[in-house]
């Protein structure tokens, strides 16, 4: 029997999660695969997508047990999957515990994962947990390390964006702007442009806000960016431009209630202008 990894991946991409699980259950009965922790790790990942977190944790426990029973095969550095497999198991555990609102246990799992491998995603998740638990110094340290450990431009941009979001939550707008702009220098991201536009809008810098929203929309046309640019246009009474943006937003999401309401309000203002 071939390794089902590719087949499972294709089923997940088609949202056939039950079929993916059935394929993995069949693999567990195979003599060559039943002691492969990757099978249990994959099952946990599918179960997590189904929001079945306790069964997912059970699969991860089995994966961990196998690595402990066969340490030379699964945890010896430089052989097979090296230590990354163990780090992945602990990371998936942490994500499950976070969904179950068990932040303390999630923190322990993230600590275990990061002892094995320094990964920017795990650092970001631990930063969120530390922030939630009130350890802001620890959160900022992890966010800083995530940026430093990210080599690929897209990863670096995401790490900078994550820290910028943190600064926004901590009401440190100036530091957030620095990180958003630094991220754009790495990888031009529609969301980062949108966030900069939102901050400019809050400061009543309407021309700057429109410029940022326009750059975001040019990168990726989203309902959120179109609605925000429309809102900015209304601030300077550019009703026709606002109407155009909201029409585009409703073309993307015809049932968007907020866009519908905003479109009606803008239409009323246009009718008032015609009546003058």
In short:
By secondary structure, this protein is mainly α.
Walk me through this protein's architecture.
The structure is a single chain. This protein is mainly α and 276 residues long. Among the domains are: 117 residues, Serine Threonine Protein Phosphatase 5, Tetratricopeptide repeat; 69 residues, Serine Threonine Protein Phosphatase 5, Tetratricopeptide repeat, CATH 1.25.40. The protein is 78% helix and 0% strand. It is built from 16 helices and no strands. Helix 1 packs antiparallel against helix 2, helix 11 packs antiparallel against helix 12 and helix 12 runs parallel beside helix 14. The radius of gyration is 24 Å and the shape is elongated. The termini are far apart. The model has no long low-confidence stretch (mean pLDDT 90).
Could you outline the blueprint of secondary structure elements for this entry?
Elements: H1 5-13, H2 17-28, H3 37-49, H4 53-69, H5 71-74, H6 84-99, H7 103-116, H8 120-132, H9 136-149, H10 153-169, H11 173-186, H12 190-202, H13 206-219, H14 223-235, H15 239-252, H16 257-275
């Amino acid at each position: 029997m071939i390794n089902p990894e590719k087949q499972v991946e294709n089923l997940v991409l088609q949202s056939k999660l039950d079929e993916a699980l059935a394929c993995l259950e069949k693999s567990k009965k195979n003599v060559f695969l039943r002691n492969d922790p990757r099978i249990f790790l994959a099952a946990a990942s599918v179960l997590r997508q189904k929001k079945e977190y306790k069964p997912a944790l059970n699969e991860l426990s089995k994966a961990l047990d196998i690595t402990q029973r066969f340490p030379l095969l699964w945890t010896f550095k430089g052989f097979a999957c090296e230590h990354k497999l163990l780090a992945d198991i602990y990371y998936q555990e942490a994500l499950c515990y976070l969904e179950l609102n068990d932040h303390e246990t999630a923190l322990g799992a993230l600590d275990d994962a990061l002892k094995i491998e320094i990964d920017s995603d795990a650092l970001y998740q631990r930063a969120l947990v530390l922030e939630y638990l009130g350890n802001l110094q620890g959160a900022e340290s992890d966010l800083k390390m995530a940026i430093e450990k990210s080599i690929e431009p897209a990863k670096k941009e995401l790490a900078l964006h994550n820290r910028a979001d943190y600064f926004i939550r901590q009401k440190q707008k100036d530091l957030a702007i620095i990180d958003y702009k630094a991220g754009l220098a790495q990888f031009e991201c529609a969301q980062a442009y949108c966030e900069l536009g939102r901050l400019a809008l809050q400061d009543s810098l309407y021309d700057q806000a429109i410029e940022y929203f326009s750059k975001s929309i040019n990168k990726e046309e989203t309902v959120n960016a179109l609605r925000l640019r429309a809102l900015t246009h209304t601030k300077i009474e550019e009703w026709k431009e606002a109407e155009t943006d909201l029409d585009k937003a409703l073309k993307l999401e015809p049932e968007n209630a907020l866009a519908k309401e905003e479109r009606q309000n803008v239409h009323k203002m246009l009718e008032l202008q015609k009546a003058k």
